[in-house]
Write a structure and sequence with these properties.
With 535 residues, the chain is of the alpha+beta class. It is 34% helix and 21% strand. The longest helix is centred in the first third of the chain and has 38 residues.
Amino acid sequence: MAGVSTLRTSRSRAVRGAVSGLLAGYVALAVAELTASLVRPQAGPVTVVGGAAIDRTPAPVKDFAIRTFGEDDKLVLQLGILAVLGLLGIALGMLVLRHRRAGAAGVLAFGIIGAAAALTRPDAQGPADALPSMAGAVAGAAVLYFLAGRLAPDTDTDTDTDTDTDTGTGTDRWSRRGFLLAASVTAVAATGAGALGRTLAGRRGQGAAASRATVELPAPASPAPPLPRGVQLEADGISAFTTSNKDFYRVDTALVVPRVDADTWRLRIRGKGVTRPRTYTFQELLERPLIERDITLTCVSNEVGGPYIGHARWLGVRLDDLLRECGVRPPSQGGKADQLVARSVDGMTLGSPVEDVMDGRDAILAVGMNGEPLPFDHGFPVRMLVPGLYGYVSACKWIEEIELTTFDAYDPYWVRRKWARKAPIKTQARIDTPKPFARPAAGVVTVAGVAWAQHRGIQRVEVRVDDGPWQDADLAPQAGADTWRQWSYPWQSTPGGHTLTVRATDGTGAVQTEERARTIPDGASGRHSVFVTAG
């Protein structure tokens, strides 16, 4: 019976050791979250470690994550970090059974890692950013050390001195009760600290929310023309021509969406060839003549037939006007800079060709989206847009600085990760309906979708059934060269399986290529097709 009792005691201690490690990790994260709410939410350990992981992830892996998890990629990353921390907590809890101080030291080591990640982030704001990780680690180490003292009379030795019996008497029974009480109090306290942290973090963002709520967008000096009648086709399953703000795609690296107060926001323009550096306030931008334009945005991570494209009506300031006001000239006019680097409040950098920004297209610093101030997810208070370029070289959200430089002198964030320096949007067409593997009734089936070639426009869309000839689709009116265009084709289907393929021709007469290419380094290419079975 003594051997059975010893085995039961060992298992009991192992379980409690694992629970101790998990509780220590929980406390560490809760205290770190509370501290981050007092410093700044972006300095939390999960955020800074996650950001460091994103920065160091190879481009193909990032592309896989976006392709597989879509806009949930950040959630998956955060859950993965928490899972790893949980496993490490269990491991440290098992270690503390034999080496109490070593287990607690392990928690402190992870705090140091988090602090180092915080201090090396592009948006780091000083030594205070290390406080959340270190405070959390100290609290977690203290809890683990304390709970280890409830596991047995002496956990610094390798000798198990519990005297548990089959009836549950002796020191181990007291240890179990004491441990359960201590663990319960710890869990409740950690939960309270985490809840308080979230509440305080929410209050920190109230100033930004209040500043957005008070924004009254002026009427544009140059309004967008009304959308042509019929721009939205009446076909079941086709995308809405104008994407609502809540449905607009979001692809970025921000684990915590910046909440910027418009009253304190500033935009600085400086750099090579800037003869009159300027700093603008949000109110100064609103007081300038604003233009309103319909522009379709596309993410370079969009696979052929993918969802990362959306259309909105934007309100903003012409970017070329601001640049000329600062003395900037494009390279074709003797300008010294050929690259415009936009910097976000979260440290992101995007590089755009100065020539494209200043060639007369409607490149803007947007303040409004579909009739309201920019949502926080989409860059409030100000974001940059350059029609015809993929977002990673043009659509900087939460922008706070524009630096004029050269492509030879500086590589922005994505270029350092093997993406192309220049990235005009490729001509693409997508079948929205019928969906892949649909089973429409035999007879007339409406095949419909969208096509885009921003800044060039779409002049033709064709559909092919199996290996048959290309047939012209009917086009909705073109709202502008910078927008996508809807199309439809009445297919007289026959029973059986069929492959439907679509291709577009842009405004220059160039036909969409059939050559397949992945998104890296400058956008996907190829023709979208779906397989359906008519019955």
